[in-house]
Design brief:
By secondary structure, this protein is an alpha+beta fold. Among the domains are: about 60 residues; about 150 residues, Bira Bifunctional Protein, Domain 2 (BirA Bifunctional Protein, domain 2). It is about 45% helix and about 20% strand. A three-stranded antiparallel beta sheet has the order 2-11-13. Strands 5-9-10 form a three-stranded mixed beta sheet. It has a three-stranded antiparallel beta sheet with strand order 6-8-7. The two termini are about 45 Å apart. The model has no long low-confidence stretch (mean pLDDT about 85).
């Protein structure tokens, strides 16, 4: 959530960033509400000081008058707090200046490439063709038992998944990450605080009877773990490596990648997540990107890092400041 003080002091920059990400907001109304709240808070502060003096003078009648006036002002303050929060929670993280803006993915900027794309002297088989032939992936029976966009993972594919998880955890632990398996459910206030409800609720599974949400990525649960806490700045960055099953409705992907197990409703992954000081966030982001190189040499032959554009006229992810895409070509003999 953007600090209201930052908005007040950098209104034009904030307005530009919001527009660039495809969102809209009435910042003038927001700042007017903040101004009214500031006036109220000064009145409340003065009345609290008067109330203390009145109590010392043992003026009971005047004390009751102040108490009634305070209750009225605090009620107004609470209402303003709610109005301001409702606006702030819908504002996106601002994009960093280096994030390009373009018409579509063809204008993404390639930052670096490492290795060489392999030249094959045979026609490679699709992963699903191999997976089904080996008995590793079964989407047909999953469709029968659950529905589309699910799959059973079997035999060596299971061993491969957990070997990769172990491989990743071993590297991340050496780099100071805390291993964590988070809960897969979140309360509405926790999910909303992570920026995943106000614009993406259709993508999230909701259990109505329990009023809980299934996580779509472990970062949602890890970020919420320290909600309403004050972290010691001297102990930052605080880094977590989280493994979890993830659940996504894929409501906006009808007709896309319907075959296979790439765009599915349930999958497992490891997430790197850091708590850091705002002034160190860009440095920490670069660190997380560099961690990719720690994993890669054991299994890849080619990798590409792309600075993804913000598509003109389209709404970007609310919580992303600098979207980076990492692409690889894996060497199956190394992965094995």
């Amino acid at each position: 959530m953007i600090d209201i003080k930052y908005i007040r002091e950098n209104k034009k920059e904030v307005a530009k960033g919001i527009k660039t990400k495809g969102f809209s907001a009435d910042l003038d109304s927001l700042l007017e509400l903040d101004k009214k709240r500031d006036v109220l808070r000064k009145k409340i502060e003065k009345l609290n000081a008067d109330r203390k003096k009145t109590a010392e003078a043992k003026n009971i009648k005047h004390g009751k008058e102040i108490k009634a006036e305070l209750a009225e002002l605090e009620s107004k303050e609470k209402k303003l707090d709610g109005q301001i929060y409702d606006i702030l929670k819908k504002l996106p993280n601002l994009p960093l200046p280096e994030v390009p803006v373009g018409k579509d993915e063809t204008e993404n900027v390639v930052l670096r490439e490492v290795g060489e794309k392999p030249k094959l002297n045979f026609q490679p088989k699709d992963y699903m063709e191999l997976g089904e032939k080996l008995g590793w992936i079964d989407t047909e029976r999953a469709g029968k038992a659950i529905g589309s966009r699910f799959g059973y993972i079997l035999r060596d594919a299971v061993d491969l998944e957990f070997a990769l998880v172990r491989f990743a955890f071993d590297i991340l632990k050496k780099e100071g990450f805390i291993s964590i398996v988070p809960p897969i459910f979140l309360k509405p206030e926790a999910m909303r605080s992570m920026g995943y409800l106000d614009y993406n609720e259709d993508e999230v599974y909701h259990l109505e009877k329990d009023n809980l949400y299934l996580i779509g990525t472990s970062e949602q649960a890890i970020g919420a773990m320290h909600m309403n806490e004050i972290l010691d700045a001297k102990k930052l960055p605080l880094r977590y490596a989280g493994f979890s099953s993830c659940f996504r409705r894929e409501a906006g992907s009808y007709g896309k990648d319907t075959k296979g197990i790439l765009r599915v409703h349930q999958f497992d992954k490891i997430e790197m997540f850091s708590f850091t000081k705002p002034e160190d966030s860009k440095k920490e982001h670069e660190f997380l990107l560099a961690m990719f190189s720690k994993f890669a040499p054991a299994i890849w032959v080619f990798k590409r890092q792309i600075n993804m554009i913000l598509k003109r006229g389209c709404r970007a992810k609310i919580n992303t400041a600098k979207p980076i895409q990492l692409q690889t070509i894996l060497n199956s003999s190394r992965a094995a």
